[in-house]
Amino acid sequence: MEQIPFLEATPLLAVMASLVAVPLIALSGNRPNLREFWTFLAGGVKLFLVLSMASWILAGHTHTYELWQILPGISLTFVVDGFGMLFALVASSLWILTSIYSIGYMRALDEHAQTRYFCFFAVSLSATLGVAFSGNLLTLYLFYEMLSLSTYPLVTHHQDEEARSGGRKYLTYLLSTSIGLALPAMLITYSITGTLDFNSMGVFGEGVSKGVLVALLLMFVFGFSKAGMMPFHSWLPGAMVAPTPVSALLHAVAVVKVGVFSIGRILTGIFGIDLMASQDLNTIVCIIASFTVLVSSLIALSQDNLKRRLAFSTVGQLSYIILGIGLATKLGVEGGMTHIAMHAFGKITLFFCAGAIFVATGKQYISQMVGIGRRMPITMFAFFVGSLSVIGLPPAGGLISKLMMVRGALEADMAWVLAVYLVSSFLNAAYFLPIVYKAYFCTEEEALFENKVQEAPLCCWLPPAITATISVVLFFYPSIFLGFAQVMMIGR
Amino acid sequence: MIQSQLPILIIVMPLLMALVIFLLGHKNEGLCFYLHVLGMAGLFAAALGILDQVVTSGTAIHYYLGGWPAPYGIELVIDHLNSMVIAMVAAVTLLVAFYSRQTVPAEVPMRTEHEKVPLRVRNYYVLYNLLVAGLLGLTATGDAFNLYVLLEIATLSTYGLLALGRGRAYYATFKYLIMGTIGASFYLLGVGYLFIMTGSLNMADLFTLLDTAFMQQSMSITIAFAMILVGVWVKMAFFPFHGWLPNAYTVASTTSSCLIAPLMTKVSVYVMIRLMFSVFSAQYVFEILGWQKIVVPMAAAAILFGSISALGQKNLKRMLTYIVVAEVGYMVGGAWLGNVNGYTGAVYHILADGMMTLCVFMAIGAVSYKTGDASLESMRGIFRKMPVTSVVFLVGAFAMIGIPPTCGFFSKWYLVTGAYEAGQWLFLGALLASSLINAIIFFRIIETGYFPDFNKAHGHGHHTDKTVVAEAPLSMLVPMVITASSLVLIGLFSKDIINNLIRHSVPPGLF
Question: Most buried residue, A238, A324, A438, B310, by CB count within 10 Å?
Answer without folding.
Answer: A324
